[in-house]
Design brief:
The protein is of the alpha/beta class. The protein has helices spanning 5-11, 15-48, 54-101, 111-153, 158-170, 176-202, 204-210, 213-266, 271-313, 374-381, 404-409, 425-429, 438-447, 451-455, 474-488, 504-517, 530-533, 553-559, 562-569; strands at residues 334-341, 351-358, 363-367, 389-394, 397-398, 411-414, 492-496, 522-526, 538-543, 546-551, 573-574, 577-578. The protein is 62% helix and 10% strand. The relative contact order is 0.09.
Length: 579
C-alpha cells in the first residue's frame, strides 16, 4: 500500500474525475453486496421450501448484475479520462520544466533516461492514479463498514473476519520498504537500458563505421539481462506481498464459513443469517483482492516516481528571475564586461576577464584555437550558464534582467550541430516564426543558398525530412538552419561554425548573401574559415579564455600576433588554402 508523495501530487490534476471514479467504484462494490443479500434470501427461502419469492429475487439479482455492468463501464471510462488528464498534465509540466532547465541539464543527464521518464514513467503514473488510488479508497472504506453491519447481525463472525482483514491490509506493509528499494533498482536499470538503446540508435552510423556493432549488442544484452534480474527481484518481494494477502483472504473466508456453519448446527443463527454471513464474508475481502490486482497494474508508477520527482525538482543552471521583456526597437549592442566562468568540476576557468563590445548593427567575429572559450561566450549570452564574475549586457541592460524566453527569442542561433525535425521543410523553417509567409521562406532560403535545391525536390517546401534531417547532406542541413535563423528575424544573429559543413567553394557567396540579408542586425560569428571572418567589421581573438587582440582582419593579420599565426597555420583559412 505504497502511496508515494509524488503520485499523490500528480493526482491533483484530476481531482474531480478521480473522485467520481472512486464513488462509482464504491457503487460497483455496493452492487456486489446487494447481490449477496438477495442470493442469501433466495437460498434461505429455497432451504425452507418457500419458492414464492424466488422468481422475483432472481429477477432482482439479474437487475443488480445489469446495473453493475453499467456502473462498471461508466467507472472505467471515468477512470480512463482521469488517468489521461493526469498523464497529459504531468507530461506537459515535465516538458515545460525541461525547457527551463535548458541544454545544460542534458550535459549531466542522459537523453534516453529523460525520455524514459517522460514517456514510460508518466504512463505508469496513469495506471497507478486511475486504477490503484480509487480502489485503495474503496478498500479502506467498504470492508470496515461491512464489518460494522455484520457485527449487528452476526457478531461471532468478527472473530474470524477482523484478524484476517487486519492481516490482509497491514501484513504486506512490512515489505513496503524492501519493495520500494527493489522498485528503485528496477527503474534505474530500466532507465539505463532505455538510454543505451537510444544512444545506440542515434550512433548507429558511427558504430558501423568503427565495427563496434557486435560489442554494442553485447552491452545491450547485458543491460537487458540486468533488467530481467531486477524485475525478478522485484517480483519476488511483490509475490510475497500478494501471497500474504491471499492467505489472509482465504483464511478469513474459511474462518467465517466455519463460524457460520457452527452457528447453523447449534441453532443460534437463522438460515438467512447463515447464508448472508457466508456470502458477505467473501464480499468483505473482494476490495482487498481487487486492490492487490490494481497494485500490480500501477506498480510501474511507484517505480518511476523518484525519477519523475528528480526531473521535476531539478534546478536550472540559470534561474529565470528576469522581468524585462527583450524587445529592442533597434539592433542592440552586446557587451562582455570582465566575464569569468568555470564549468562545474573543471580545474581551470574557461573564461578569464573577457571584455569586448559587439557594436549594434555590425558583425563581430570571434576566433581562437580550440578550447579558447568561443562557444562558452555564446552559452553565457544565451544564459545557458551564468558568469562567475562580470556581466553581459544587451542594449545596455544585464542579460539577467531579461526574461529567458524573450531573451532567447531575440537571439537567433545557428550552430555547427544542426537539428532538423521530422516534418516538412516549410515547418522546419517556420520553427521560430510560424506565421511567416511563403515569400518570406523563399527569401530566407535564397539568402542561405538552399532555395534552388529545395525547389528541385518533387514536393518542394512540402518535402518531409527524415529524423534529424538524415535525408540531407551536412551542408544542406546547415543552410536550412541558416535560412531558419534569417526567417526568425531576430535583432541578434549568432553563427557558431554555421558554414563548417558547406562546400568551401560556395561558402564565400553564402556568407556574403547572409551578411547582406542580415543587414542592420547585430551579428556574432564564430568561425575558422577566412570567408566567414574577413567580412566582419571587428575580429576578437581569444586565447586561453582571455582576449588576445581586437581589430579588423587586415590590421590583425599584419600585426604578427596570434591571429597571424592562426592564419599562417591554417586555423583561419580561405577555401581549402591557408590565408
Amino acid at each position: 500500500m505504497i502511496v508515494h508523495p509524488e503520485l499523490r501530487r500528480a493526482a491533483r490534476y484530476a481531482r474531480r474525475p478521480l473522485l467520481a471514479a472512486t464513488l462509482l467504484q464504491g457503487a460497483v462494490t455496493l452492487t456486489h453486496l446487494g447481490q449477496a443479500v438477495l442470493l442469501a434470501v433466495a437460498l434461505a427461502d429455497t432451504a425452507r421450501g418457500d419458492t414464492a419469492r424466488l422468481p422475483l429475487l432472481l429477477a432482482a439479482v439479474l437487475g443488480v448484475v445489469a446495473v453493475r455492468a453499467g456502473l462498471g463501464c461508466l467507472q472505467r471510462r471515468t477512470a480512463t479520462r482521469a488517468g489521461a488528464r493526469v498523464r497529459v498534465a504531468l507530461r506537459d509540466e515535465l516538458l515545460a520544466h525541461l525547457g527551463r532547465l535548458g541544454p545544460a541539464h542534458l550535459t549531466t543527464a542522459r537523453a534516453g533516461a529523460v525520455r524514459t521518464t517522460l514517456v514510460d514513467g508518466v504512463e505508469g503514473v496513469d495506471a497507478y492514479v486511475s486504477r490503484y488510488l480509487p480502489q485503495l479508497l474503496v478498500t479502506l472504506t467498504v470492508p470496515p463498514l461491512l464489518l460494522v453491519a455484520l457485527a449487528a447481525s452476526a457478531p461471532v463472525a468478527l472473530l474470524g473476519l477482523v484478524p484476517a482483514l487486519l492481516l490482509a491490509l497491514a501484513g504486506p506493509r512490512a515489505w513496503d520498504r524492501l519493495l520500494a528499494r527493489r522498485g528503485k533498482e528496477h527503474w534505474d536499470t530500466y532507465e539505463q537500458l532505455g538510454a543505451d538503446y537510444l544512444e545506440a540508435l542515434q550512433g548507429m552510423p558511427a558504430l558501423r563505421a568503427a565495427g563496434a556493432v557486435g560489442r554494442t549488442r553485447r552491452r545491450l544484452e547485458e543491460r537487458s539481462a540486468a533488467l530481467h534480474r531486477a524485475t525478478v527481484a522485484k517480483l519476488r518481494v511483490s509475490l510475497v506481498d500478494t501471497g500474504l494477502t491471499d492467505l489472509a483472504v482465504q483464511g478469513g473466508v474459511v474462518a467465517a464459513a466455519l463460524l457460520a456453519c457452527g452457528a447453523a448446527v447449534t441453532g443460534s443463527g437463522t438460515p438467512t443469517g447463515t447464508y448472508l454471513l457466508l456470502l458477505l464474508a467473501s464480499e468483505c475481502f473482494r476490495p482487498v483482492r481487487d486492490l492487490s490486482r490494481e497494485w500490480h497494474a500501477g506498480y510501474l508508477g511507484v517505480s518511476s516516481a523518484d525519477g519523475i520527482r528528480a526531473l521535476r525538482t531539478a534546478e536550472p543552471a540559470v534561474p529565470d528571475t528576469g522581468t524585462a521583456p527583450a524587445r529592442w526597437a533597434a539592433p542592440p549592442e552586446v557587451r562582455f564586461e570582465h566575464v569569468e566562468f568555470t564549468y562545474g568540476g573543471a580545474g581551470e576557468p574557461a573564461l578569464r576577464g573577457v571584455t569586448f563590445t559587439a557594436e549594434a548593427g555590425r558583425t563581430t567575429a570571434i576566433v581562437g584555437p580550440s578550447g579558447a572559450g568561443k562557444s562558452t561566450l555564446l552559452a553565457l549570452l544565451l544564459r545557458h550558464h551564468a558568469p562567475g564574475r562580470g556581466r553581459i549586457t544587451v542594449d545596455g541592460r544585464d542579460v539577467a534582467a531579461y526574461t529567458l524566453g524573450s531573451l532567447r527569442q531575440g537571439i537567433a542561433v545557428v550552430s555547427q550541430e544542426t537539428y532538423l525535425f521530422h516534418a516538412t521543410i516549410a515547418d522546419n523553417l517556420r520553427l521560430a516564426r510560424p506565421d511567416a509567409t511563403d515569400d518570406a521562406l523563399v527569401r530566407a532560403a535564397r539568402a542561405a543558398g538552399v532555395h534552388d535545391e529545395i525547389a528541385a525536390l518533387p514536393d518542394g517546401y512540402a518535402t518531409v525530412l527524415g529524423e534529424r534531417g538524415a535525408t540531407l547532406s551536412g551542408g544542406q542541413r546547415q543552410r536550412l538552419a541558416l535560412a531558419r535563423a534569417l526567417l526568425a528575424d531576430a535583432p541578434v544573429l549568432v553563427l557558431d561554425e554555421a558554414t563548417s559543413a558547406v562546400d568551401e567553394r560556395r561558402e564565400a557567396d553564402i556568407v556574403r548573401e547572409l551578411l547582406r540579408a542580415a543587414g542592420g542586425r547585430t551579428v556574432l560569428v564564430i568561425a575558422h574559415r577566412l570567408a566567414a571572418v574577413r567580412h566582419a567589421d571587428r575580429v576578437v581573438v581569444l586565447d586561453g579564455g582571455r582576449v588576445d587582440a581586437v581589430g579588423d582582419h587586415t590590421a590583425l593579420a599584419a600585426a604578427g600576433g596570434l591571429y597571424t599565426r592562426l592564419v599562417t597555420a591554417g586555423e583561419v583559412r580561405e577555401g581549402g588554402r591557408a590565408a
